[in-house]
């Protein structure tokens, strides 16, 4: 039998891991001590170092550190059995990269923002795409859309933006699990049009968000597409004419290799910022006019987000108030519907009880009437000659057998009052 536990807050977890060894706490909740350590890392809860309890026994342990206050976007509770460890894996991945680099005596290979450390190989494990943008199999990644050719450029651009935001005190992270933050769809075309446009673009499981103060704003860095002349090269594949060599141009000729115009990755980047609340419609984008101009956009984006945050905070608050009001109305409507259903049920029970009672009374009257009839016939038969009397008694026995056992009280015993239904 599986034991169900109530979710633990950061404060409760902090008290537990400093009250007794994590091995005992883990056993209580059916997890290992190493798993519990990942939970503490994910919730930013300090935990005792190795050897703490031995030192405590001899009075040599250091004072326990205070629990840091939760920051916007922090995971604030853990339900035993829930998946954790994103922050732990990111920290460990960074540590491994830097350790290997230190051992090799070279500069660290990847010193990007923590959301970007070690993600390149994951982006390169991708599905096919008809517009050149990667569609990685992994979904728990930073929100970056790029072609393979310009992936390094896109990741560097994301790093520059994230670091600029971090330098201003704004946290950039994946949306906390369970927060139901929406992600704005991306129109990857360089010149978006007001038409019905659908692409099978990759999308992450959780949005990438920046917290400007307490205000979450979604971010997507993507490579735009442009209208490009393409040539059919066989096997349902098209390639840009501009990428062909002179020899390939001579080989791929019509009518076997026809040409057409399609949207294809342009090498120019854009960043889209959007409201993460379903009820608040706000979306802005900044894009390069020429490849390599993203650095000049970074400060504009940071400034624009800081200017937009107060108004978004007001809209988020209003949206939350509206949601609470709608929830209140829905609950009130549901309560009224339940009360009406209960009234209807009680009335139905009353009607059915009354019907069954009248049927019981009628059954009783019928039983009394039949019994009175048989008794009257028996009395009359006693006055008849022997031959007629015996014949009539035989007929009476057949009649009783046909009617069966009369139980005037049976229907009343089986009857249910309204409250019993």
Descriptive account of the structure:
By secondary structure, this protein is of the alpha+beta class. It folds into 3 domains: 8-84, no CATH class; 111-192 and 199-292, no CATH class; 345-420. Helix content is 45%, strand content 15%. The protein is built from 11 helices and 11 strands. It has helices spanning 10-19, 22-28, 33-42, 52-57, 86-104, 120-124, 151-167, 246-251, 294-381, 386-403, 410-414; strands at residues 8-9, 77-78, 126-127, 135-136, 144-145, 171-174, 208-212, 215-234, 237-240, 259-275, 283-287. The strands form 3 sheets. Strands 5, 6, 7, 8, 9, 10 and 11 form a 7-stranded mixed beta sheet that branches. The mean pLDDT is 87.
Topology:
Blueprint: E1 8-9, H1 10-19, H2 22-28, H3 33-42, H4 52-57, E2 77-78, H5 86-104, H6 120-124, E3 126-127, E4 135-136, E5 144-145, H7 151-167, E6 171-174, E7 208-212, E8 215-234, E9 237-240, H8 246-251, E10 259-275, E11 283-287, H9 294-381, H10 386-403, H11 410-414
Parallel strand pairs: 5-8
Antiparallel strand pairs: 1-2, 3-4, 6-7, 7-8, 8-9, 8-10, 10-11
In short:
The protein is an alpha+beta fold. 45% of the residues lie in helices and 15% in strands.
Number of strands: 11
Percent helix: 40-55%
Sheet of most strands:
7 strands, mixed
**H and E string:** EHHHHEHHEEEHEEEEHEEHHH
Give the integer mean of the pLDDT values. 87
Estimate what percentage of residues fall within beta strands.
15-25%
Which runs of at least 5 residues are low in confidence (pLDDT < 50)? Answer: none
Number of helical elements:
11
Principal-axes shape call: elongated
Kindly, what is the distance between the CA atoms of the first and last residues, rounded to a whole number of angstroms?
A: 35 Å
Structural class: alpha+beta
C-alpha Rg (nearest Å): 39 Å
Number of domains in the coordinates?
3
